Amino acid sequence: MKSFTFSYTPYYWLTVSSLAVLLFLSGLFVSSFWFSDRWEDLFKGNIEFLAECDPGLTEAQLITIENRLSKIEGIQNLRFVSATEALKIMKTELKELALPDSMDNPFRGSFRFTLDAERVDTAYAKLLERDLTKVDGISAFYYPEDLYGAVRSRLKSISLVTGAIGGILLLLILVMIHHQIRMYIMQHRYHIRTMSLVGATRGYIRRPFIIEVLKMSSFSILVAGIAYFSVLLWIGHVVGQSLFASSLDMVVLGMLFIIALGILMSFSAAWAAIQRYLESTDARDFI
């Protein structure tokens, strides 16, 4: 028997690209939903605290302060930043908005550090501030007032928006795939009817349509997977920690969900479309 030939219209590629966007958003949503605590810890561990030192301290005094700070439980990545280094950092970040060279350096030397994620909360920060300001040579302690509150609120908003967009896309893409298969069926309805009359089974008739829609979903899964990994690499670069090393299970779960959802959606929409046609007594019932 003559095999089916399928045409790839702009509508076909619109369906592929839309499905890829849905799968990409779904992968991110699943990763952020099931591992929300881990995302919080990841960002908490990158919040920087600053203990400002008195001016004119000797190297011996700075070493004493550093030893004192390093013994405090929870403090990580402790480093000293001189006033000159602080000014250079500001100029690098602000560029033309930075202070002119004619002005005196307003910064002082400081010790900067991060905390264990489990210790990043306002109560502990205030307790730490009280203890550090009592240390000889430390004049002030600075940290974000809301600490992780703003980031947590932003992550929740992003998750809700992603979930809402994904839900809408899910319905639209099911309809698009279903409509794409209907167009294929109508293009080959006489061929299908001929095969039915000569005794071809429903499985034989259904097979090329299922294979075609799975091929379509494979393109979408590939694009969504590349975008998903790219975003995780970018996030890892921002936070200075590879998610593929520290959270491999999260990465794998998101990718498995992308693959499973892509196959399930495509297969179910194609199956429903061809099944509806095969169960109709007249092709006109399907139009």
From TrEMBL:
Belongs to the ABC-4 integral membrane protein family. FtsX subfamily. The chain crosses the membrane at residues 12-35, 157-177, 216-239, 251-274. This is Cell division protein FtsX. PANTHER family: CELL DIVISION PROTEIN FTSX. It is found in: Cell membrane. GO terms for biological process: cell division. InterPro entries: ABC3_permease_C (IPR003838), FtsX (IPR004513), FtsX_ECD (IPR040690). Residues 165-278 form the ABC3 transporter permease C-terminal domain. The keyword Ribosomal protein does not apply. Its main location: membrane. GO terms for cellular component: plasma membrane. Residues 53-138 form the FtsX extracellular domain. The keyword Nucleus does not apply. It is a multi-pass membrane protein. It holds the Pfam family FtsX.
